[in-house]
């Protein structure tokens, strides 16, 4: 029997790359769930901002089914505080409560995070920071809570990367591309596929002894101090 994989927020960006990677593996039966329409096979549309409706939908669709891998990659891009909290946090808590009995030994839960879980991003509002900071701590909480069942919980965080919506732009030479490359000791911009590969690794048996961790797939942008990074960008080294 194939192992069930559910990816929330798989219609675009990093979530889409994660879904495609698992879909290629014949041992998995993959489902995509988001508020958006999609032509993906096994895509399920539900309004994640409506927590009660989301849980009711999940109960009907996955009743008595074991869940092997659960990935939270959804993101809200609007300005509503309540909607942001519902999609990014409250729905997550309710989904984990509903699925708790469906997780089996070896199951894996992965959260997709941004740098807002530990730093301030000027182009995002306070709610975005609240959600990602909370999720980083939820990873640790549920790693302990679900650990007795040998269910692992981890996170993957990333900086600005190439994805289907911006890959063409970042593959060209321009001021922003050159600037972002300077931020990384690797002198390159990461790709959504790099994040997907990390999620895939953390979800499989090769990572059986890793839980409660948030892995940064960011090319090492946090390794330099602010002073050292400023000098590098200004060519003052």
Binned, the helix content reads 25-40%
- Count of folded domains: 1
Q: Whole-number average pLDDT?
A: 92
In CATH terms, what is the architecture? Answer: 3-Layer(aba) Sandwich
CATH superfamily: NAD(P)-binding Rossmann-like Domain
Tally of separate helices: 8
CATH class assignment: Alpha Beta
Task: List SSEs in N-to-C order.
Answer: EHEEHEHEHEHHHEH
Gross geometry? globular
Termini distance? 57 Å
Which stretches are poorly predicted, pLDDT < 50 over at least 5 residues?
A: none
- Structural class of the helices, strands and pairings? alpha/beta
Strand order of the largest sheet: 3-2-1-4-5-6-7
Beta strand %: 15-25%
* CATH-defined fold name: Rossmann fold
Largest sheet: 7 strands, parallel
Instruction: Please state the CA-atom Rg, rounded to the nearest Å.
Output: 18 Å
Overview of this protein structure:
It is a single chain. The chain starts with a strand and ends with a helix. Helix 1 packs across helix 7 and helix 2 packs parallel to helix 3. Strands 3-2-1-4-5-6-7 form a seven-stranded parallel beta sheet, with helices on both faces. The protein contains eight helices and seven strands; from the N terminus they run E-H-E-E-H-E-H-E-H-E-H-H-H-E-H. 40% of the residues lie in helices and 19% in strands. The model has no long low-confidence stretch (mean pLDDT 92).
Describe the structure in brief.
This protein has about 240 residues and is an alpha/beta fold. Helices cover about 40% and strands about 20% of the residues.
């Amino acid at each position: 029997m194939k192992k069930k994989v559910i990816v929330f927020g798989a219609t675009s960006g990093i979530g889409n790359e994660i879904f495609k990677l698992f879909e290629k593996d014949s041992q998995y039966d993959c489902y995509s769930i988001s508020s958006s329409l999609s032509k993906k096979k096994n895509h399920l549309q539900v309004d994640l901002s409506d927590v009660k409706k989301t849980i009711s939908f999940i109960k009907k669709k996955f009743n008595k089914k074991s869940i092997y891998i659960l990935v939270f990659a959804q993101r809200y891009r609007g300005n509503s505080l309540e909607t942001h909290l519902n999609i990014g946090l409250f729905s997550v808590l309710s989904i984990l409560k509903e699925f708790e009995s469906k997780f089996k030994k070896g199951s894996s839960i992965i959260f997709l995070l941004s740098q807002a879980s530990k730093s301030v991003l000027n182009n995002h509002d306070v709610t975005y920071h609240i959600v990602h900071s909370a999720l980083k701590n939820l990873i640790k909480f549920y790693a302990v809570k679900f650990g007795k069942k040998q269910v692992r919980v981890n996170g993957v965080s990333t900086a600005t990367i190439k994805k289907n919506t911006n890959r063409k732009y970042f593959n060209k030479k321009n001021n922003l591309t050159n600037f972002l490359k300077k931020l990384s000791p690797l002198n390159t911009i990461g790709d959504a596929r790099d994040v997907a590969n990390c999620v895939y690794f953390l979800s499989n048996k090769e990572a059986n002894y890793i839980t409660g961790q948030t892995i940064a797939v960011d090319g090492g942008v946090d390794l330099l101090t602010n002073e050292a990074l400023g000098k590098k960008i200004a060519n003052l080294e």
